[in-house]
Amino acid sequence: VQLVESGGGLVQAGGSLRLSCAASGFTFSSYVMRWYRQAPGKEREWVATITSTGGWTRYGNSVKGRFTISRDNAKNMVYLQMNSLKPEDTAVYYCHAESGNYDYWGQGTQVVVSS
């Protein structure tokens, strides 16, 4: 089982980034997918959720209206489009898969937003 995030980097405030998470080793289309983030010295924070079919999404208050989660079950991919980035969005972003008693984490991708 693997979840591999990519797309992080350094961006100026107000800019955009698109994170990707490539899944393998499990039945991706059966899993709810989430993005979390963890800033230095802070607890891991839930960012967004998308259901297995992609028909329902939900966002944390701090990113609502700026971030969009999506998935492509044919490619075993989940994405996080991040717009209007703020310095407080600086964190390591993690992809998470969950189905019943099973859940998996990626290794994370660093996002740094400069002011």
Structural class, from helix and strand content?
Answer: mainly beta
The run of helices and strands is EEEEEEEEEEE
Distance between the termini: 37 Å
Q: Describe the biggest sheet?
A: 7 strands, mixed
* Secondary structure: helix percent: under 10%
* Alpha plus pi helix count: 0
Low-pLDDT residue intervals, each spanning 5 or more residues = none
Mean pLDDT, to the nearest integer, reads 97
Per DSSP E runs of 2 or more residues, the count of β-strands stands at: 11
Strand coverage percent: over 45%
Rg from Cα: 13 Å
Label the overall shape.
globular
Outline of the structure:
By secondary structure, the protein is mainly β. The chain has strands at 2-6, 9-12, 17-24, 32-38, 45-50, 57-59, 67-72, 77-82, 91-99, 102-105, 109-114. Strands 2, 4, 5, 6, 9, 10 and 11 form a 7-stranded mixed beta sheet that branches. Strands 1-3-8-7 form a 4-stranded antiparallel beta sheet, with no helix packed on it.
Describe the overall structure.
This protein is mostly beta strands. Helix content is 0%, strand content 56%. The protein contains no helices and eleven strands. The chain has strands spanning 2-6, 9-12, 17-24, 32-38, 45-50, 57-59, 67-72, 77-82, 91-99, 102-105, 109-114. Strands 2, 4, 5, 6, 9, 10 and 11 form a seven-stranded mixed sheet that branches. The mean pLDDT is 97.
